[in-house]
Structure formats: C-alpha cells, structure tokens
C-alpha cells in the first residue's frame, strides 16, 4: 500500500466529522425507541466516536473514486457504524450482566453479546431511523467525495 493512503486527508476529516455527527443524531433518535428504564450513560459519545472512526477509515479511505462509489462508500460506512455500535453497546451490556452474575461461563457471556444485539435490533426497526441512516450515509459519502475532489 502506498504511504499516501495512510496520511490524513481532507476527505478523511470530512467523512469523520460527517459520520460522527450522523452517529450522534442517530443516537438521539434511538433514545425514545428504547424502554423508559434504559440507562444510556455514554451512549451518544460512544456512537460519536465510532462514527468518527468509521468515517475516517471506511468512507475517507475510499474517497476520490467517483460519485457513484461515494454513495456506496457512505452506505458501507453506515453499515460499519451500525455493526460496531451494536457490538460495543451489546458488549457493554454483557459486562454489566456478567457483574450481576447472569452468566455461568465465558462462552455463555459471548453468546449473550449476540442475544443483546438481537434484543437491541428489535427496538430499532423504525422507518425514520433507518431512512436517516441511509440518506445520511449517502450524504457523508458525497461530502467526502467532494472534499477529495476539492482539496487534492
């Protein structure tokens, strides 16, 4: 891989900021969908950080290949954000459940991560949230593409 691929670029920065903002917005949209007793804690901040990382590494690294690719890159970035978000939030819940003695062993705890993710997914099937993530991801990809064309 050429050394220029690992250097910071305007496209990476724009993608990181855009997907981070989308992660924050989606987190705010998720709050009313969850049960009232849900303790969110650092939920928004974790999803913001995941959005920044996915924007930088997934969308930003692929910018500059054309506007059609930019749409696909944006959707890929959002999918990565969703997968990592489910994993991190489910892992966090699994740690809490482990401290409460819910699991008998490590394998059961690992399975608990996936069960938690499935439980979260059932709450998040909301047309407004899904539409926001899809359209927002495509916008993030287009913004990164425009930054790559403008500042390279």
Automatic annotation (TrEMBL):
Coiled coil segments of this chain: none
RNA-binding in keyword set: no
Keyword annotations of the record: Membrane, Transmembrane, Transmembrane helix
Keyword Transmembrane helix: yes
Residue spans crossing the bilayer: 9-27, 39-59, 71-91, 128-148
Designated name of the protein: Tellurium resistance protein
InterPro entries: TrgA
